[in-house]
# Entry
Amino acid sequence: MKKNRCFIICLMTLLASFHLYADENNRAKTILDRTAEAYRQAGGVYIRFGGTQQGILALKGECFYLECGGVKSWFDGKTQWSYVEQNEEVTISTPSPEELQSINPYALINSYETLFQYRYGTQHSIKGKTGNEIILTPRNKGSIQSVAVFISADYHPLYITVRLANGETQEFRILSYQTKQPYTDAYFRFDPKKYPNAEVIDMR
# Structure
């Protein structure tokens, strides 16, 4: 009888843990869905960030412009241009989805369902702002080991930590977040007229 009672208690505990996991998983999905929708409704977004490195990031749909660590990168949804100021070289490439995530952490907002498994972390505060932490783990092994996204009450990321397979960690702390920016399509493409001395390396 005692053995049966122990078995029933263990079974109930196991079922309760599955139920809790499902609830937390649904909570994570709801937060990510609302974050993705808020981003889609934001139009052009301007972000100033600190953390591992400091820089600016401009976003509109799948396009971005990133300025960080002496490198300027443009992505128009298909082609990426990376300009290194120190040696005046611009490299042209067609990045993979995983490469885009390591360059532009906001890329994961639009691809989390297909590329990641996700779970709810905790609710806590960072520098006086309360939000929810979501942990994402890639479905396929690659350069990214995991991503932790701290999302505000109005559904935009405040802090992103990307853990790489090589043991390195990249941290992005959002210092300024401005929506409805009037970016043109040309803003997300390299303009050779502005960099007449740049050596072009085409990797496509």
